[in-house]
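Schema walk-through. Below, the input block comes first and the output block second. Nothing else is stored per chain. Lengths vary across the set, and this one has 134 residues.
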Amino acid sequence: MIVGFTLHELGSVEIQKLFVELVSHLHLNPSSQLPGAIYHAIHEVNNNNITLIAAGTVLYASVRMVEAYGLWHAFAWTEWFAMASGAIYFPFEIDAVITRGHWLDWAALLINLVVVAYMATLILNRRKAKKLGV
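--- output ---
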């Protein structure tokens, strides 16, 4: 949430200036691949984009905080929500594994599979306990 509010507060011109200062401070070549790509992307950003990015960041963080609160208090609906919100990333992770196959892509997919499987196990155990009247 802090990132979202900070992006919105700074605005596109300040973000561009900060990036130029950071590249200069780190003695990076601004025309090399990564700094050049980031530099190009930052110059495409305007105040409307910043507002959308900031709002999306705040919304995402808020949803994750509600989910964390619900899981902490063992609400059943948050188990379903956590499982669904983890499973929603599967197509993107599978695509990354297929197209790039980097070990980080594999790690992200495997960790997410474990988390979703764990949430499914919690849901099934809750249903069994409910049937048994425990």
